[in-house]
Amino acid sequence: MWLLGLPWALALLVTAAPPDPASIFADLSAAELRAVRTFLMGRPELGLSPSQGGPLAKNSLFLVELLPPQKRRALRFLEHGGARPPREARAVVFFGAQAEPNVTELAVGPLPHPSSYRPLPFKGGRAVPFSARPMTRLEYELLHGALVAALAPLEPLLLEATGFGFQNCSERCLTFSDIAPRGLGPGERRTWLVIQRFVEGFFLHPAGLEVLLDHRDPEPRRWAVQRLWYNGRYFGSVRELARSHARGELALARLPEPPARQLFSSYEPRGGFPSGTPTDVHGAKVCEPQGRRYRLRGNRLEYGGWSLAFRLRSSAGLQLFDLRFGGERVAYELSVQEAIAFYGGHSPAAMQTKYMDAGWAMGASSYELARGVDCPETATFLDAHHLLDADGPVRFPNALCVFELPTGVPLRRHFDSDFQGGFHFYAGLEGRALVLRTTSTVYNYDYIWDFLLYPNGVLEAKVHATGYIHATFYTPEGRRYGSRVHSHLLGNIHTHLVHYKVDLDVAGSGNSFETMDIRFENISNPWSAGARVVQPRLHREPRRREREAALPLGRAPPRDRSAPGLTPPLTCRRYHLAVTRRHENEPSSSSIYSQNDPWDPPVTFESFIRDNETIEEQDLVAWVTVGFLHVPHAEDIPNTATPGNAVGFFLRPFNFFSEDPSVASRAAVIVRPLDPPACSRLHVQRWTPASPGPCVHPEPFTYNGT
């Protein structure tokens, strides 16, 4: 048995080797991405145009990524010597140049030389409306142009209030952040835009103006501003707001001139610590004095008893496959599904914000990791290639890293006292974990995604939230929805929720699910007549059907699981944990289309459990939700810090092994006295070298960032 415990709160070959079986799960190489695009662009019936430039009303290729093989084919290959599954790509095509525009997904293969494609229907055969498509660079360029033109009458207001503008600006320009969902119902595409001064950390520099722009029409000339909000007041048109300013009837919010140095939204050091301890010298570092203790072959990672395959999906991020401990599979898949943040506020942009980051391609937001900051200097760094809203694959250098981490606490230890001032023995095993890490910078927020492998068979999935808070312009009424974190800045209350898929295969694919809780009993004391004993006992509850195995957020969960009790608009986040039968047509709990059509999305998690199938001795998937409430405060300036802003869950063996499997580690230390009780002579047992040796990484810091 394996326990799922929830706390509250690439294509780079490292060693030359024959293709590993894990390569069936490897991300598409740059050559494969290019081959898929070339093949599809050459199909006349698709009528595809380049992604960049041209009109919105065109057919274009938006996304290409690996289409993982069907599980039964993969297991037949991995376990029974069956044929290698055909390698295929998932391609997302925007069909905008037709009478009824839509988004269609295609399976393209076989790779590396594709020759055919077929539609990939969603469960129920639903089509994706064109209005649900993710935003593209082209649409943003057109949106910016439409906004600049529409707000031209407000240039005097903006210059007077902020010192920045849109018209013919150079270094003193205004910019915007867009809010989603884009409307109030299916088919809409009208977006609230938060106007900001374009300085370092512009997310913290709202100008007090928010604009609702309707951009549903494929012809940008027909886009229009529908509403505006300025400093707490609504206006029906640009002209109305400009007239109010010209007549002197507007309460103007004049912003101070931003300083040339030490801007509050920058990382530039300022101030000092009263202790006087040095911060201008290097601190503690991670080192590998005898070399790496893990093995990386293509996308296969091995460490201690662990082995797994991994990939970085452009759409939703890290995905692990074929997770084994001691050679035995414990999970077929473990993957990030969605990250959402929903807000409250007084301004229209704040009250509308419900971000669903798969819709912003959070997997392709995996920018370069800095050696020595984002990952230790000793880490192995891996590149990723994405083909997303581009006319060819784009290389993201150092997008992932792998490193062994000293946890700072022993994995286990014991001091066995003789209670006479001496001891019988001391034994301890150093705490180490292997970390697989990437990040997603989805505009203002940075998510740090970790999977940690421990030598005792425990796996931890963890995400840290950092980056800039999503903030709006301060008004007195806004204090009900957050904190005033700077003079003109409101940090809006919001909840982060993250969803994972865990396809457990414990001793095979036929699994069942039960929860354990603690009940208290009051019984007669069997060894003292007339006395009572109050003690805890275990209460086991088999969950035989999917509805029984969906544990709602609004209800206290069993004691070995917990999560916050707030409900976002996507149904998969209604549950701490939901266990369903695995189906090939239920690969994900969300999609890249949910952000712009959350009212009627093509993937609805509730349909996974609506049929209430039996889950006894079946191939099961656990869908896990973790998260936390964030009430921003002044200490979130310039960025939210990672301590206290991390959530995750553990996979832990529970009566699966006969003992702690970390006993196989040779990193233990045992000390026994040779002359008890004096303990003046000791026998120290180690199975590693007595001294770790030098611990210095000689290479200087470098960073590219492109």
UniProtKB/TrEMBL annotation:
Cofactors (names): Cu cation
GO terms under biological process: amine metabolic process; response to antibiotic
Similarity-based family: Belongs to the copper/topaquinone oxidase family.
Record region (Disordered): 534-567
Natural source organism: Rhabdornis inornatus
EC number: 1.4.3.-
Enzyme class: oxidoreductase
Signal peptide: 1-16
Protein name as annotated: Amine oxidase
Domain Copper amine oxidase N3-terminal: from-to ranges: 134-233
